[in-house]
Amino acid sequence: MIIIDQLTKKYGEALVLNQLSLNIKPHEIYCLLGANGAGKTTTINLLLGFIKPTSGSAFINGLNVSENSRKTKRFLAYIPENLMLYPTLTAVENLDYFSGIGGKNLSKVQLEDFLNQAGLQKGAFHQRISTFSKGMRQKVGIAIALAKDAKTLLLDEPTSGLDPKASNEFGQLLHLLRDKGVAILMATHDLFRAKEVATQIGIMKQGVLRQQFNAQNISLPELEAAYLETMDFKELEV
Amino acid sequence: MYKYNFVYELKVLVRNGWIQLLSLLLLGLFCFAAFNGSEKVEKRKLDIQAAKTEVRESDHDMLMLLDSVEQGMEVSASRWTIPTSPTAVGNYHPRVADMSPKPLAFIAMGQSDLFTHYVKPTMTGDDFTLNFTEITNPVQQLFGSFDLSFVIVYLLPLIIIAFSYNVLSAERESGSLKLLASQPISLRNWVLQKISLRFFWVALLTIVILTLVMMFFGTNTNLKDWFSILGITIAYMLFWFTMAFLVNLQTGSSSKNAIILLGLWVVFVLLVPSVLNQLGSTLYPMPSRTLMINEMRNLKAQTVKRQDEILDNFLRDHPEYAINDPNQNRKFYHRYVAAQKLVKEELKPIINKFEQQLQKQQAWISQLRWISPAIVTQQSLSTNAGTSTADYENYRGQVIQFAEAWRTHLVPFLYNNQSFTSKDYDHLPVFTYQPLKSNDSSLSWLVLLVISIVLGATSIGLSSKSKSSSTLAT
């Protein structure tokens, strides 16, 4: 479960996140839409504890991120835009390494099972990551989240650069995780994928959450219109 | 986490070819350096052997001549070279005062490229004219000898820098750091473990390769010396890995890390030793050698004029010679040796000043050697090799004592106008070099270990004050 309460981040005088509040429950996928510089990645970095908030707080599984940065990481998994694993290690080895340093000692059968659940072809299990496409690497990322038994998943533009088939497969994997009760926050530019996978959608601009929708109550054209309308919000751009 | 880092770090290194490359590089460097060092030691041994052979042949000729003279035969030799004369024995049949290389001499040339390993003190030669230096290739003087000490002190830190400068920054630059930082681990501990593992692998390789090299080149090495060399080498390596750890935590990009670490290498390996030497010379300048030679010449010129008076004074101080020689037949060498003793006594303050200044310089550098681990390591290795300044000072002192013993043994023959006979041959003084008792270098490597641990702890402290572990990811 992710709770964000009045979260604000300033770099000097620049306000990059302004009093953001969100509540993402288990079985929910929240998609944050917004242009570059809207504050999506900053929000994720704050939830990961990579940066400290100027004010406000964020909670993962009831733990304050600022105060319990390392503890909260036991409950979360993170997949960045470009998931870089160790290229000279195989998929199984990368999964074993990231699970192991996270405190999970898994057998080879378990590791292969997680890769299987993540949709990676069996033939690729023991191939080096250097031979993998971005889509395959993202699947290993999902396997890491599955192996970790993460209660929260943070995704930073995970489908950017994926072909439609890989992007669709990735969306199905998110549904799998959602069904397992994971609370998912995904920052993306991809309106179509957001509409496909999300339960909630928020549109951010200049660090402020402008609009929120229940994904079931909005069609793709309506979402697109709302997004464009938000981006062209003249009053704030002055 | 440690188990996973240990296993997968090795896999990554092996698959990258780093371990193979490093092993080959270290093996190549150590073997070439050991070969180079042992070749030079071998040459010195041969030089000493040649000098001893020359003395044996000269002694054989001397004994033949003595035998002929003692049997009343005519000998076809210049009068002043016939060994019945003590000055002929003292000047034309000197002993070799040699400093045989220790079994580990090949690991560090130390001062051996500057100082000789053997001299032949004569009866009428002056101690200060004993030539303890050798003419060496000036290019070698500039760059030093390519021995194990050079590889360990100069090149090993560069290999360590290449191996550890980008432990954290490479993860940041490749993009894997964020994934890593999203795990419930301390990045600071992760970096420490990574650097420790790399230290472990490089140390293991170094130990294995050094052991192989020692088995091949250092045949008579005892275990204590061997552990001493390993100890100082490992402590020196640890210092450089600690530097890499400190830089990895404090700075950003790989290029910046590399430049900072190379800068530290220049400071600790090149600048500090050079500046300490220069400051030592400035603070404790050596008196002019030209002035000393002028003084010596003046004294000699003065004594030539006063040789009769000096001889009279000498005989007054040594009445036993007057009693033993009722003829009082005094010639050139009687005057010369008496004058030489006076010159030596009068030059003593000037020579002492030289030695005192040299000792002050060395004491100053020795006190400040802890500023640079390179100096500490170099000194320890030279001490183990028996080629340190202290070893050569010890040798020089023993040679001067022997020269005095050689003179003292032959002077009574001269002033008693007593002939040297073949029976006296067996009583001639013999030089036996007594090496310094092996200096224990455990203090050096213990201090280096403590410095490294304190630096490591300080860097963790500084890093945690300026950044939390997670924020290292950004």
Task: Quickly list its features.
heterodimer, A: 238 residues, alpha/beta, Rossmann fold, four-stranded antiparallel beta sheet, 9 helices, B: 474 residues, mainly alpha, 18 helices, 2 strands, elongated
Low-confidence runs of at least 5 consecutive residues of chain A: none
Helix segment tally of chain B? 18
The CATH class of the domain at 1-75 and 154-159 and 190-238 in chain A is identified as: Alpha Beta
According to CATH, the homologous superfamily of the domain at 1-75 and 154-159 and 190-238 in chain A is: P-loop containing nucleotide triphosphate hydrolases
- Largest beta-sheet details of chain B: 2 strands, antiparallel
Q: Would you count the extended β strands of chain B for me?
A: 2
Count of discrete domains of chain B? 1
Helical proportion of chain B, percent range: over 70%
- CATH architecture verdict of the domain at 1-75 and 154-159 and 190-238 in chain A: 3-Layer(aba) Sandwich
Tell me the fraction of residues in β-strands of chain A, as a range: 25-35%
Structural class per helix/strand content of chain B? mainly alpha
In terms of DSSP E residues, the strand content of chain B is under 5%
H/E topology pattern of chain A: EEEHEEHEHHHEHEHEEHH
The count of helical stretches of chain A stands at 9
Shape of chain A: globular
Query: If you average the pLDDT of chain B, what whole number results?
Result: 84
Beta strands of chain A, count = 10
CATH topology of the domain at 1-75 and 154-159 and 190-238 in chain A: Rossmann fold
Report the span from N to C terminus of chain B: 22 Å
The secondary-structure element order of chain B is: HHHEEHHHHHHHHHHHHHHH
Protein name (chain A): ABC transporter ATP-binding protein
Domain ABC transporter (chain A): 2-231
InterPro entries (chain A): AAA+_ATPase, ABC_transporter-like_ATP-bd, ABC_transporter-like_CS, ABC_Transporter_VariousFunc, P-loop_NTPase
Pfam families (chain A): ABC_tran
